[in-house]
Amino acid sequence: MNEEKEINENSKNEQLELFRSADNQDKIMTTNQGLKLSEDEFSLTAGERGPTLLEDFHFREKMTHFDHERIPERVVHARGFAAHGEFEVYESMKSFTKAKFLQDPNVKTPVFVRFSTVVGSRGSLDTPRDVRGFATKFYTEEGNYDLVANNIPIFFIQDGIKFPDLVHAIKPEPHNEIPQASAAHDTFWDWVSQNQESANMIMWLMSDRAIPRSFRMMEGFGVHTFRFVNEEGKAHFVKFHWKPLLGTHSLVWDEAQKLGGKDPDFMRKDLWDAINMGNNAEFELGVQILEEKDEFAFDFDVLDATKIWPEEDIPVRIIGKMTLNRNVDNFFAETEQVAFHPGNVVPGIDFTNDPLLQTRLFSYTDTQLLRLGGPNFHEIPINRPVCPFFNNQRDGFHRQTINKGQVAYHNNSLANNSPKTVSPAEGGYAHYQEKVEGRKIRARSESFKDHFSQATLFWNSMSAAEKQHIIDAFRFELGKVKSKDVRQNVVNMFANVDLDMTQAFAKAIDVVVPTSGTTNATKSSPALSQENTLKKPNTRKAVVVIADGFNSINVKAVLEVLESNGVHATILSDKLGPIKALDGTELESKHTFLTDGSVAFDAVYVEGGANANKEFEKDAKILIKEAYMHYKPIAVTSEGLLWFEAQQLVKGPGIIAGKGQTTEFATQFIEAISAHRFWERQVV
């Protein structure tokens, strides 16, 4: 048994190796047919200045492959980044589900996770205000299971028939293809005001959740209600959660905008660099489990994808951990070609009548047929299951399997009716036998019609700073909307969520400020506020700003404390290369004021240097002020302290000033980095 488990753990890597090309280092160049080449710089021509000849098969092969290298990008979730890892369950979930990968804590299941933005094209930036995809492929011994999740637990719509309208509205407007990767335009907000079921999702989208600090620091949610089914056939409703072990943290809006210009690849580089440095991304898998008898016990419909199950009412049970520990070898072959589908399930996991989920079960396969060129996309290495698979499907574009034998149909006698089906007791998948009946209608249950209570619940759950960020987000987004009628419609809609909130942003966008609304919900959920998340310094990034003539005692002491607490520190100066201290010590600068600003880091420590010139001082002051405005931890010593005081900034929360070599200074700096932001700071 242990030998079988070891084989299962290694099988995905072994399977991928069969398709992974050897590195080109020290190899002889050949055509794709293996013919060794003597020249790759010049086409075959009739004389040195003559025409290119049609018989140049090498030119044609090379150019044809280049001309066909691109495949259609995803309509949504086009910009993605991924990593490999493993999942292990903490305890057997046998009483709830017969899914084998959720049974044995000693088995590690290979996974592949793709994070993404939703709206922007593949060439857009990492930091827009947007939902983030969080799709996980589990390579289990029973087949591939895909948990296709987002970092927001709900969605804009209740029925997938509206999905094309939503995407058409939020994408760049068709007459001029503007704006890219942004919801701040007329067609999207017009759609919102005419589809009020989106109210709850819009509150999340306007919140800090829509600008995560890192893929490693955001939650993931399965969004839909699924079913667990155990060996006895008993079912429970279930929702899936990914909880980051680093806590849930975000950027601030101004910081996100600046990062989009300075480093449009900020989030993908963060994940890539973290894994390369051994700072593996870790998430715990949680489930909310509900007995079927309690399906109608709440003031919302548990099948409504625009609603959460409040964690205070239905607690999240942590059942396992996922560790992302290996970067991809080839972005296109893995990240771009991976195909997810919520219909890729294993025995023990089943669907519900959630109308949005039902439509996704059709749409995902349909999309992959276009993107990946036909029905054999499951044979692409990144999509292949680790377990054997056999059926009577044949041929088609990009077929890789060479099937033997004369039989490709079921039932048959010539091959002893192989491949054969097996019973559920032998591992065959059987759909949960839910009784379904009703007239054929186009309608939605009355239980889906409350669009505002949970939007108000979300607002009530926010801290004062988070509420202000939501107001500011509405001001920005609606400030970009040209149609006054659309702005007014949105204001009228959100007066039903919270009147004070709506009045606050309505005053800034030239509309009639509402004086009444309909909601009176008072409930809150502390789990929704990021102020209540985990806060620790692990894997945070701190920049140390020094000039020639710096105090090496201060800097070395701070660097040692940062490193010992898991903070990644790096040197920034006015130039790259060695920076010399007063005592002759040298530290290497890997960043400059021109290439990076405070926005690229979680905390700043400015020491300065006795030989810093006026230009250095000016740049350092800008860096300090920017970090101050973004509520970040700031430590200052020597010249850095003088530059801080010269700007008349208040030495309030998160400001550590003094001598870097003291224990008190170091302790306060680490505590400040753990806190992440200091919203109570008075920004001047």
From TrEMBL:
Signal peptide: none annotated. The keyword Oxidoreductase applies. Gene3D superfamilies: 1.20.1370.20, 3.40.50.880, Catalase core domain. GO terms for molecular function: catalase activity. It catalyses: 2 H2O2 = O2 + 2 H2O. InterPro entries: Catalase, Catalase_AS, Catalase_clade2, Catalase_clade2_helical, Catalase_core, Catalase_haem_BS, Catalase_immune_responsive, Catalase_large_C. The keyword Oxidoreductase applies. Keywords: Heme, Hydrogen peroxide, Iron, Metal-binding, Oxidoreductase, Peroxidase. This is Catalase. Decomposes hydrogen peroxide into water and oxygen; serves to protect cells from the toxic effects of hydrogen peroxide. It comes from Alkalihalophilus lindianensis. Its cofactor is heme. Pfam families: Catalase, Catalase-rel, Catalase_C. Its EC number is 1.11.1.6. Residues 30-418 form the Catalase core domain. PANTHER family: CATALASE (PTHR42821), CATALASE-B (PTHR42821:SF1). Belongs to the catalase family. HPII subfamily.
